Amino acid sequence: xxxxxxxxxxxxxxxxxxxxxxxxxxxxxxxxxxxxxxxxxxxxxxxxxxxxxxxxxxxxxxxxxxxxxxxxxxxxxxxxxxxxxxxxxxxxxxxxxxxxxxxxxxxxxxxxxxxxxxxxxxxxxxxxxxxxxxxxxxxxxxxxxxxxxxxxxxxxxxxxxxxxxxxxxxxxxxxxxxxxxxxxxxxxxxxxxxxxxxxxxxxxxxxxxxxxxxxxxxxxxxxxxxxxxxxxxxxxxxxxxxxxxxxxxxxxxxxxxxxxxxxxxxxxxxxxxxxxxxxxxxxxxxxxxxxxxxxxxxx
Amino acid sequence: xxxxxxxxxxxxxxxxxxxxxxxxxxxxxxxxxxxxxxxxxxxxxxxxxxxxxxxxxxxxxxxxxxxxxxxxxxxxxxxxxxxxxxxxxxxxxxxxxxxxxxxxxxxxxxxxxxxxxxxxxxxxxxxxxxxxxxxxxxxxxxxxxxxxxxxxxxxxxxxxxxxxxxxxxxxxxxxxxxxxxxxxxxxxxxxxxxxxxxxxxxxxxxxxxxxxxxxxxxxxxxxxx
Lengths: 299, 225
Description:
The structure holds two protein chains of two kinds. By secondary structure, chain A is α+β, with helices and mostly antiparallel strands.
């Protein structure tokens, strides 16, 4: 496609636009399909961005912290805790280490055992929160030293459960992106069908245009411009409704977790603006290819 | 202007036209006659590239139509004015826009050439019907509008396929006068018609050759015409 064609397309030609008769159901179909697909694309985009944020947060926050668990008899627990803290303070790569208070430990168990838990009567291990520095500590070396000096210490650097969580969030992000691609593909397929139907219905118009000297590019452009503008309008309306739906979702909260964090954040609200542009581009390409093929078949 | 050499055209498994040769020189006036179904419309279509011959060659303005791509064919059609038997309008556009269609598709703005368009509408007697839609026109008005559309680009050649087929005698005379005027302006005119009375009437006013398609071949018509 030449630069001149694109320029003519963007600037438009009111006379050229009029040569194609206004068509009924294909116009409505294009508007509806692009609107519905844009609406779905907004949610897919929101899902993808929220999953991405979650994956990044989990990866970052969990990667920076570790937990040291002291499983020792009650009479040795304080000594082993103190020894472990001493080792941690001496370990390069550990920014900060502190033993959790009884209240903090009770709060961690609260969801499972309730508020009346007699923590002092249970053999609950002492937990030490370890915040790593940059660069981080040598986990294998630290484990080796702890096993020698603090026999009841178990270092959990969260890798075991962090990796599947981050992997799941990243998979959700990819699913969101794949959904957007599928939506774009489905839009292209539907608009191609609508364009084929419109071209077939206007076969006589095409013949007349050719007989008076219209080039195929001119005829194709008249159809493509019309379909692209319809797709742009439909997708803009669909996008606006989708964004409104996202806006009306409950605000992100710790209690709601992932479900309430499904919206856009900050400049992320601008991302949906790309959806109508993508929809119009998809429509432009689909109609252009359909028009050139149909015109080739009609010759 | 238009040159056919040993042209044959097959249709539906049989030969519709065979071994046709003809040269239309600049400023000439030709009638093409023959019984219904003899191939007059096919012959006209071969002359402006709507159909390509099965064998032989058709040259328009020295261009072999078989060698032209679709864009080149479109450019060539802007230089050949065609009046179709069934007129073929875009029914959703007013008459003035239909007449201006060849200008529109060639990128010229009809609004900037409205004087020419008004003059043309007046010439074919459709000034007061400019805003009507084609289905609202009578048979004669449709034919005159088709003629106006055929000549708006000032083509060198005008091919009219049964331009008087659906109109009364008075209107066919009026259309004939318009075509004769065009010929006197130097245009090459070819009219396909089975109306022998019209051809006789034309021969008294203009020097015209009459060709007849008979038994798939082209012949010069006899002295009775």
